[in-house]
Design a protein that fits this description.
Layout lengths: L3 E9 L2 E9 L3 H4 L6 E5 L13 H4 L5 H8 L4 H4 L9 E5 L2 E3 L5 E3 L2 E5 L3 E8 L17 E5 L2 E16 L6 E14 L8 E8 L7 H11 L10
Length: about 230
């Protein structure tokens, strides 16, 4: 997954609040932590652009910047079914989690937001086959095959977090539905995955067809993908 869509709320006693919507799925229930978030917000000159790699990121097989570059393609709004829109924000986040054996697994992610949708792409180079994770994603999880790779389609809720700019109490609650597609890195499902998450800014249920269109076009362009 890493994945923040920000919208301004109305004024309350002269204090502006900001609501951040987080997709909380991700590999094995979102076992990640936010890292060095880098990115560019949109300007009047055109859609948002991804930030540049730094030396640390370049050393990785797939960095957050490379994920962002693959996801922030010119036709992404078309794939999402909103061709009149463009990217408002596009950024990457380097994050990781520690496994039960103490090993550290890198989980770079990228997110692109439009007026209607947010889409997040996360890579995980762990040892777990995707086909064995379906039982961890709840009763509604569906085993799929995408471009010859084992995959799992499932739902989760976003978390809506409201920050008060006057330093007051931060509040959180359940947001809308996010649809997730976890896909094995290789057709043999030897461990590791890419995961796409899609959710709507209005908390409506996102379109599975849009999620699958994005996956079919974006994943083959990401470093580490092995054709089936």
């Amino acid at each position: 997954m890493t994945d923040v869509s920000v919208a301004e709320k109305g004024h309350n006693a002269g204090v502006q609040a900001v609501a951040a919507v987080l997709a909380v799925g991700g590999a094995f229930g979102g076992l990640w932590a936010l890292g060095n978030v880098q990115g560019n917000t949109t300007s009047a000159k055109g859609p948002a652009a991804c930030s540049h790699d730094d030396d640390r990121q370049v050393s990785r097989r797939v960095s957050a910047h490379r994920l962002c570059t693959a996801l922030n393609r010119p036709d992404l709004p078309v794939l999402l079914g909103a061709p009149q829109e463009e990217a408002r924000t596009a950024y990457g986040s380097e994050s990781s989690f520690s496994g039960a054996d103490g090993s550290k697994v890198a989980m770079p992610s990228a997110e692109v937001d439009t007026k209607t949708y947010s889409v997040q792409l996360t890579a995980s180079d762990d040892r777990y086959p995707v086909s064995e994770t379906a039982s961890l994603m709840g009763t509604g999880a569906e085993k799929r095959t995408l471009l010859g790779h084992p995959a799992v389609l499932y739902s989760d809720h976003t978390i809506a977090i409201r920050f008060r700019l006057d330093g007051g109490r931060t509040e959180s609650g359940t947001g809308g539905i996010a649809r997730h597609l976890m896909v094995a890195l290789d057709p043999e499902d030897g461990g590791g995955s890419f995961e796409l998450a899609l959710w709507r800014q209005d908390d409506g249920t996102p379109d599975d067809a849009a999620l699958l269109r994005v996956a079919e076009q974006v994943l083959p362009t990401v470093p580490g993908w092995k054709a089936g």
